[in-house]
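Table S2 (continued). Query chain:
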Amino acid sequence: MIIKKIFNNNAIVAEGSDRHEFVVMGCGIAFKKSVGEKIDEKLIEKTFVLKGKDASEKFKLLLEDVPTEYVSICYDIIEYAKNVLDAKLNDYIYVTLTDHVSNCFKMIESGISTHNPLIWEIKKFYPKEFKVGMKAIEFIHDELGKNLPEDEAANIALHLINAQINNSLNKAPDAAKQAKMIQDILNIVKYTYNIVLDEKSISYERFVTHLRFFFHRLDKVELSDTSDEDFLLKQVREKYKKAYECMLKVQNYLGKELSDEEKLYLTVHIQRVSKKN
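Corresponding output:
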Protein backbone atom coordinates (compact mmCIF):
# COMPACT_ATOMS: atom_id res chain seq x y z
CA MET A 1 0.00 0.00 0.00
CA ILE A 2 1.56 3.27 -1.15
CA ILE A 3 0.77 6.98 -0.82
CA LYS A 4 -0.93 8.40 -3.90
CA LYS A 5 -1.77 11.86 -2.54
CA ILE A 6 -1.19 13.75 0.72
CA PHE A 7 -3.85 16.11 2.13
CA ASN A 8 -2.10 16.74 5.43
CA ASN A 9 -0.13 14.82 8.06
CA ASN A 10 -3.22 12.85 9.02
CA ALA A 11 -5.03 12.13 5.74
CA ILE A 12 -3.92 10.63 2.43
CA VAL A 13 -5.11 8.84 -0.68
CA ALA A 14 -3.68 5.33 -0.68
CA GLU A 15 -3.32 2.85 -3.52
CA GLY A 16 -3.54 -0.87 -2.86
CA SER A 17 -1.83 -3.72 -4.72
CA ASP A 18 -4.96 -4.01 -6.90
CA ARG A 19 -4.49 -0.34 -7.91
CA HIS A 20 -7.74 0.68 -6.20
CA GLU A 21 -7.62 4.05 -4.45
CA PHE A 22 -9.13 4.91 -1.09
CA VAL A 23 -8.76 7.55 1.58
CA VAL A 24 -7.13 6.64 4.89
CA MET A 25 -6.69 8.68 8.05
CA GLY A 26 -4.46 8.30 11.07
CA CYS A 27 -2.45 10.48 13.41
CA GLY A 28 0.84 11.35 11.69
CA ILE A 29 0.28 8.85 8.86
CA ALA A 30 1.89 11.20 6.31
CA PHE A 31 4.39 12.90 8.60
CA LYS A 32 7.70 13.28 6.76
CA LYS A 33 6.35 11.07 3.97
CA SER A 34 6.23 11.62 0.21
CA VAL A 35 4.01 10.40 -2.62
CA GLY A 36 5.04 6.91 -3.72
CA GLU A 37 6.29 5.81 -0.30
CA LYS A 38 4.86 2.87 1.58
CA ILE A 39 2.29 3.46 4.32
CA ASP A 40 2.81 2.34 7.88
CA GLU A 41 -0.46 0.37 8.13
CA LYS A 42 -0.25 0.39 11.93
CA LEU A 43 -1.07 4.11 11.82
CA ILE A 44 -4.34 3.66 9.88
CA GLU A 45 -7.33 4.58 12.05
CA LYS A 46 -10.10 5.13 9.48
CA THR A 47 -10.55 3.91 5.92
CA PHE A 48 -12.99 5.40 3.40
CA VAL A 49 -13.87 3.08 0.53
CA LEU A 50 -16.38 4.96 -1.65
CA LYS A 51 -17.56 2.83 -4.56
CA GLY A 52 -19.17 5.63 -6.55
CA LYS A 53 -16.58 7.52 -8.58
CA ASP A 54 -18.42 10.84 -8.28
CA ALA A 55 -18.77 10.48 -4.49
CA SER A 56 -15.12 9.46 -4.20
CA GLU A 57 -13.83 12.43 -6.20
CA LYS A 58 -15.98 14.96 -4.34
CA PHE A 59 -14.90 13.50 -1.01
CA LYS A 60 -11.26 13.99 -1.98
CA LEU A 61 -11.97 17.61 -2.92
CA LEU A 62 -13.70 18.07 0.41
CA LEU A 63 -10.63 16.84 2.28
CA GLU A 64 -8.58 19.68 0.81
CA ASP A 65 -10.76 22.29 2.57
CA VAL A 66 -12.25 20.59 5.63
CA PRO A 67 -10.26 20.03 8.84
CA THR A 68 -9.40 16.38 9.46
CA GLU A 69 -11.16 16.33 12.83
CA TYR A 70 -14.46 17.26 11.16
CA VAL A 71 -14.10 14.43 8.66
CA SER A 72 -13.21 12.04 11.48
CA ILE A 73 -16.24 12.91 13.64
CA CYS A 74 -18.59 12.56 10.66
CA TYR A 75 -17.10 9.14 9.96
CA ASP A 76 -17.88 8.11 13.56
CA ILE A 77 -21.44 9.46 13.27
CA ILE A 78 -22.07 7.56 10.02
CA GLU A 79 -20.66 4.29 11.39
CA TYR A 80 -22.77 4.71 14.52
CA ALA A 81 -25.85 5.38 12.36
CA LYS A 82 -25.26 2.26 10.25
CA ASN A 83 -25.18 0.11 13.38
CA VAL A 84 -28.16 1.72 15.14
CA LEU A 85 -30.39 2.02 12.07
CA ASP A 86 -29.24 -1.33 10.66
CA ALA A 87 -29.46 0.27 7.23
CA LYS A 88 -27.32 0.70 4.14
CA LEU A 89 -26.43 4.30 3.45
CA ASN A 90 -25.52 5.78 0.10
CA ASP A 91 -21.77 6.57 -0.13
CA TYR A 92 -22.63 10.22 -0.76
CA ILE A 93 -23.45 10.58 2.94
CA TYR A 94 -19.70 10.96 3.63
CA VAL A 95 -19.68 13.99 1.33
CA THR A 96 -23.01 15.60 2.23
CA LEU A 97 -22.81 15.16 6.01
CA THR A 98 -19.17 16.28 6.25
CA ASP A 99 -19.85 19.30 4.08
CA HIS A 100 -22.95 20.17 6.13
CA VAL A 101 -21.19 19.87 9.50
CA SER A 102 -18.25 21.94 8.27
CA ASN A 103 -20.56 24.71 6.99
CA CYS A 104 -22.58 24.53 10.21
CA PHE A 105 -19.46 25.29 12.26
CA LYS A 106 -18.60 28.20 9.94
CA MET A 107 -22.07 29.72 10.37
CA ILE A 108 -21.98 29.34 14.14
CA GLU A 109 -18.57 31.02 14.26
CA SER A 110 -20.03 33.87 12.17
CA GLY A 111 -22.96 34.24 14.57
CA ILE A 112 -25.52 32.92 12.06
CA SER A 113 -28.26 30.60 13.35
CA THR A 114 -30.60 28.55 11.17
CA HIS A 115 -33.88 26.78 11.83
CA ASN A 116 -34.96 23.46 10.33
CA PRO A 117 -38.63 23.89 9.29
CA LEU A 118 -39.09 20.10 9.10
CA ILE A 119 -37.95 19.38 12.66
CA TRP A 120 -41.36 18.27 13.94
CA GLU A 121 -41.99 16.04 10.93
CA ILE A 122 -38.58 14.44 11.33
CA LYS A 123 -39.21 13.83 15.05
CA LYS A 124 -42.63 12.39 14.30
CA PHE A 125 -41.93 10.17 11.30
CA TYR A 126 -38.24 9.34 11.78
CA PRO A 127 -37.63 9.01 15.54
CA LYS A 128 -34.66 6.62 15.09
CA GLU A 129 -32.80 8.96 12.76
CA PHE A 130 -33.55 11.90 15.04
CA LYS A 131 -32.13 10.02 18.04
CA VAL A 132 -28.98 9.35 16.03
CA GLY A 133 -28.87 13.08 15.27
CA MET A 134 -29.08 13.85 19.00
CA LYS A 135 -26.30 11.34 19.68
CA ALA A 136 -24.23 13.00 16.94
CA ILE A 137 -24.55 16.31 18.77
CA GLU A 138 -23.16 14.57 21.86
CA PHE A 139 -20.24 13.17 19.85
CA ILE A 140 -19.46 16.63 18.47
CA HIS A 141 -19.59 18.20 21.91
CA ASP A 142 -17.39 15.52 23.49
CA GLU A 143 -14.83 15.40 20.67
CA LEU A 144 -14.74 19.00 19.43
CA GLY A 145 -16.19 20.97 22.32
CA LYS A 146 -18.79 22.58 20.06
CA ASN A 147 -22.42 22.99 21.15
CA LEU A 148 -25.06 22.50 18.46
CA PRO A 149 -28.82 23.17 18.78
CA GLU A 150 -31.55 20.53 18.44
CA ASP A 151 -32.23 21.78 14.91
CA GLU A 152 -28.86 20.35 13.91
CA ALA A 153 -29.93 16.92 15.19
CA ALA A 154 -32.82 17.21 12.72
CA ASN A 155 -30.46 18.31 9.94
CA ILE A 156 -28.17 15.35 10.55
CA ALA A 157 -31.22 13.05 10.64
CA LEU A 158 -32.29 14.54 7.31
CA HIS A 159 -28.98 13.56 5.72
CA LEU A 160 -29.34 10.01 7.06
CA ILE A 161 -32.91 9.77 5.76
CA ASN A 162 -31.87 10.98 2.32
CA ALA A 163 -28.95 8.55 2.27
CA GLN A 164 -31.36 5.67 2.92
CA ILE A 165 -33.90 6.90 0.36
CA ASN A 166 -31.24 7.50 -2.29
CA ASN A 167 -29.80 4.05 -1.65
CA SER A 168 -33.18 2.34 -1.93
CA LEU A 169 -33.99 4.36 -5.06
CA ASN A 170 -30.77 3.37 -6.75
CA LYS A 171 -32.68 1.74 -9.59
CA ALA A 172 -33.67 4.20 -12.29
CA PRO A 173 -37.29 2.93 -12.73
CA ASP A 174 -38.04 3.55 -9.02
CA ALA A 175 -36.58 7.04 -9.10
CA ALA A 176 -38.43 7.84 -12.32
CA LYS A 177 -41.71 6.58 -10.88
CA GLN A 178 -41.30 8.71 -7.76
CA ALA A 179 -40.46 11.80 -9.81
CA LYS A 180 -43.59 11.31 -11.93
CA MET A 181 -45.81 10.87 -8.86
CA ILE A 182 -44.44 14.05 -7.30
CA GLN A 183 -45.10 15.94 -10.52
CA ASP A 184 -48.62 14.50 -10.73
CA ILE A 185 -49.41 15.68 -7.18
CA LEU A 186 -47.99 19.13 -7.92
CA ASN A 187 -50.26 19.26 -10.96
CA ILE A 188 -53.28 18.34 -8.82
CA VAL A 189 -52.49 21.35 -6.61
CA LYS A 190 -51.95 23.62 -9.64
CA TYR A 191 -55.25 22.70 -11.26
CA THR A 192 -57.23 22.76 -8.01
CA TYR A 193 -56.15 26.33 -7.29
CA ASN A 194 -55.58 27.35 -10.92
CA ILE A 195 -52.15 28.76 -10.07
CA VAL A 196 -48.53 28.50 -11.13
CA LEU A 197 -46.43 27.25 -8.23
CA ASP A 198 -43.33 29.22 -7.30
CA GLU A 199 -40.64 26.57 -7.58
CA LYS A 200 -38.10 28.83 -5.88
CA SER A 201 -40.19 29.35 -2.75
CA ILE A 202 -39.39 27.70 0.58
CA SER A 203 -42.97 26.38 0.76
CA TYR A 204 -42.50 24.57 -2.55
CA GLU A 205 -39.18 23.10 -1.46
CA ARG A 206 -40.66 21.89 1.83
CA PHE A 207 -43.63 20.33 0.03
CA VAL A 208 -41.45 18.39 -2.42
CA THR A 209 -39.18 17.25 0.43
CA HIS A 210 -42.22 16.10 2.37
CA LEU A 211 -43.47 14.14 -0.66
CA ARG A 212 -40.13 12.36 -1.00
CA PHE A 213 -40.36 11.19 2.61
CA PHE A 214 -44.05 10.46 2.16
CA PHE A 215 -43.43 8.00 -0.69
CA HIS A 216 -40.69 6.35 1.32
CA ARG A 217 -43.25 5.70 4.08
CA LEU A 218 -46.23 4.87 1.88
CA ASP A 219 -45.71 1.12 1.61
CA LYS A 220 -44.68 0.73 5.23
CA VAL A 221 -46.97 -0.08 8.14
CA GLU A 222 -49.49 2.70 8.69
CA LEU A 223 -48.83 4.95 11.66
CA SER A 224 -51.57 4.72 14.29
CA ASP A 225 -53.91 7.64 14.71
CA THR A 226 -54.37 9.39 18.04
CA SER A 227 -57.14 11.57 19.43
CA ASP A 228 -54.82 14.58 19.28
CA GLU A 229 -54.16 14.05 15.58
CA ASP A 230 -57.87 13.49 14.92
CA PHE A 231 -58.67 16.77 16.71
CA LEU A 232 -56.00 18.68 14.78
CA LEU A 233 -57.18 17.23 11.47
CA LYS A 234 -60.75 18.41 12.21
CA GLN A 235 -59.41 21.88 12.97
CA VAL A 236 -57.36 21.98 9.78
CA ARG A 237 -60.23 20.57 7.71
CA GLU A 238 -62.48 23.41 8.86
CA LYS A 239 -59.88 26.14 8.55
CA TYR A 240 -58.37 25.06 5.21
CA LYS A 241 -61.35 23.56 3.37
CA LYS A 242 -59.95 23.89 -0.14
CA ALA A 243 -56.55 22.48 0.87
CA TYR A 244 -58.33 19.54 2.54
CA GLU A 245 -60.37 18.91 -0.61
CA CYS A 246 -57.15 19.01 -2.63
CA MET A 247 -55.57 16.51 -0.22
CA LEU A 248 -58.54 14.16 -0.84
CA LYS A 249 -57.84 14.39 -4.58
CA VAL A 250 -54.24 13.39 -3.88
CA GLN A 251 -55.44 10.49 -1.74
CA ASN A 252 -57.76 9.39 -4.56
CA TYR A 253 -54.85 9.59 -7.01
CA LEU A 254 -52.77 7.36 -4.73
CA GLY A 255 -55.63 4.88 -4.34
CA LYS A 256 -54.85 4.41 -0.68
CA GLU A 257 -56.52 5.54 2.54
CA LEU A 258 -54.03 7.66 4.44
CA SER A 259 -53.64 7.92 8.19
CA ASP A 260 -54.88 11.05 9.94
CA GLU A 261 -51.36 12.35 10.48
CA GLU A 262 -50.49 11.93 6.79
CA LYS A 263 -53.71 13.76 5.86
CA LEU A 264 -52.89 16.49 8.35
CA TYR A 265 -49.36 17.15 7.05
CA LEU A 266 -50.36 16.95 3.39
CA THR A 267 -53.21 19.42 3.94
CA VAL A 268 -50.94 21.88 5.76
CA HIS A 269 -48.28 21.67 3.05
CA ILE A 270 -50.87 22.18 0.30
CA GLN A 271 -52.23 25.20 2.16
CA ARG A 272 -48.75 26.69 2.51
CA VAL A 273 -47.69 26.15 -1.09
CA SER A 274 -50.97 27.56 -2.41
CA LYS A 275 -51.01 30.53 -0.01
CA LYS A 276 -47.50 31.50 -1.16
CA ASN A 277 -48.97 32.17 -4.57
